[in-house]
């Protein structure tokens, strides 16, 4: 199976590259840009094109969100012309107002924000015009490297002694970029083998939490990891933010369909974040030893 991944520096693109390197049945072609032409697609001849998500479109300039939607529209045209499957990952923020119950795939987002509505229009067009698509809605992605990675920024600020502000009244499911990459490759392997299960799927981590709780847990585990390695450091504090004064906004994706159709189980975010913190600490320790050796 050959996959074409756009936006090379995105945390999901890097995670997909790591996942493909562990497998003998998956070849990746990674493009720096965020769009693709029909001629380039014909030359590469992939089985599918994967477009990583805007992780936080609500916090972005409307022009940047519109540019992303325009790029996806261009990719759609190219994929239609070459009959190449299109996989578009989108943020759970399209469900701007959330729901009190877990959100099923058949619930099409209906945001009030104009730029988010532009993304929904692109999704509507994909569903209406091209059967060979997967629209994969994700919780907030976290990873150690790449753009939109979130976790690396949290760690960087904490280690620098800077305060990290995080909302305590928005509930969602943090989602590991590595877990998404593994799931996407598995889903597409089944599609290439004839599953023909196109459409929209939700893919997020288990255990809904607030950004404040997630960030606080990262700080606690990071401190434990560093102290366990004999490193004394004063981390920055985590400060709560409130955006909704009347009630908490719940933006929790129901991921039952991806399990029923593809057998994909969601990975607990605590385990994934703990694994990444282990990796970060090992890299930090290795770099410190290298620096010590060089100075000696």
TrEMBL record:
It comes from the Bacteria. It holds the Pfam family RmlD_sub_bind. Signal peptide: none annotated. Residues 66-279 form the RmlD-like substrate binding domain. This is dTDP-4-dehydrorhamnose reductase.
């Amino acid at each position: 199976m050959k996959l074409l991944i756009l936006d090379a520096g995105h945390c999901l693109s890097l995670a997909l590259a790591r996942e493909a390197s562990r497998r003998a049945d998956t070849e990746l072609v990674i493009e720096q840009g965020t769009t693709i032409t029909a001629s380039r697609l014909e030359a590469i001849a992939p089985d599918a094109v994967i477009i990583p998500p805007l992780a936080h479109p609500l916090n972005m300039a409307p022009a940047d969100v519109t540019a992303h939607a325009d790029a996806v529209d261009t990719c759609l045209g190219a994929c239609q012309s070459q009959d190449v499957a299109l996989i578009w990952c989108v943020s759970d923020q399209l469900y701007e107002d959330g729901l009190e119950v877990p959100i099923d795939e058949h619930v099409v987002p209906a945001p009030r924000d104009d730029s988010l509505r532009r993304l929904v229009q692109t999704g509507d067009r994909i569903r209406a015009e091209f059967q060979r698509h997967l629209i994969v809605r994700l919780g907030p992605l976290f990873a150690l490297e790449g753009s939109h990675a979130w976790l690396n920024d949290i760690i960087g600020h904490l280690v620098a002694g800077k305060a990290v502000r995080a909302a305590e009244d928005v509930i969602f499911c943090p989602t590991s970029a590595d877990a998404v990459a593994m799931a996407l490759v598995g889903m597409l392997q089944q599609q290439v083998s004839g599953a023909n299960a196109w459409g929209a799927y939700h893919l997020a981590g288990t255990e809904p939490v607030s950004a404040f709780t997630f960030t606080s847990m990262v700080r606690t585990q990071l401190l434990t990891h560093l102290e366990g390695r004999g490193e004394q450091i004063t981390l920055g504090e985590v400060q709560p933010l409130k955006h909704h004064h009347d009630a908490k906004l719940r933006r929790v994706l129901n991921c039952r369909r991806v399990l029923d159709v593809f057998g994909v189980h969601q990975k607990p975010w605590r385990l994934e974040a703990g694994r990444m913190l282990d990796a970060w600490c090992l890299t930090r320790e290795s770099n410190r030893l290298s620096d010590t050796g060089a100075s000696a």
